[in-house]
Amino acid sequence: MNNPKTAIIAEAGVNHNGSIDTAKIMIAVAAKAGADFVKFQTFRTEALVTLAGDTPEYQKELTGTEESQFTMLKKLELDRAAHEELIQYCELKGIRFLSTAFDHDSIDLLAELNIPFYKIPSGEITNLPYLRHIGCMGKSLIMSTGMATLEEVLDALDILLEAGTKKDKITCIWVASGTFSQIIFDLGVRLISATDGSKQQLMKKPSIVLSPQFYVEVVYLLQIRVHI
Predict the structure, then answer these.
(1) Residue 120 and residue 24: Cα distance in Å, rounded?
(2) Pairing of strands 215-219, 96-101
(3) Residue segments in the chain with a per-residue pLDDT below the cut of 70
(4) Comparing C-alpha atoms, which of 34, 41, 30 is closest to residue 76?
(5) H or E segment to which residue 215 belongs
(6) What element of type H or E holds 13?
(7) CA geometry: angle at 7 spanning 20 and 200, to 5°?
(8) pLDDT by residue (tens digit) across 91-106?
(9) Which of 2, 18, 182, 215 is 20 to 30 A from 74 in CA distance terms?
(10) Exposed / middle / buried, residue 164 (Cβ in 10 Å: 0-12, 13-18, 19+)
(11) How far apart are CA 150 and CA 72, in angstroms?
């Protein structure tokens, strides 16, 4: 995290569809593309949705089934053994394993597996117990802010600091993908600093994050270091 070199993260997510073989293909492609990390998702379905939870219409259209959200997510879970196997494969391919935790057990699992840092998804910025748990782990953090208001981001930072995370271990990023990303980049994105009102240019050019075989995201690394 202290290395000034821009780190490229290949977003694998759950696009492995529950297949370790597919996950390994994604790792290999990400490594060949020159990415520094390949990021998956770690979760326990029981901690996220109920058995009766309905699947959103867009997911039904994508999957072509009427299965429940619980059933769909359960197929995408990676257990501890799968994590260990993928970590070993990452080492073989010369790329570092990373994953986003979505529940408390998963936060602990990733700590036990010694991931290099935590990635907090923007959808969890208002999940205060989640933030407190991650905040007390002592690791560096990257927090996505795309779904949050500035007030929510600042509140989340307060929670992380109160939980014990050092301010120099926190990096916030704003992520945009697809056509919207290019529009924003073409406009020349600038940020009005929340701390001193000065204008800061985000980047002269975007870093390209490759999601192997699926899509390409243009990610603007908005590094808002916490100043108090």
Answers:
(1) 24
(2) unpaired
(3) 1-4, 58-59, 63, 174-228
(4) 41
(5) strand 215-219
(6) strand 9-13
(7) 140
(8) 999 999 999 999 999 9
(9) 215
(10) exposed
(11) 33
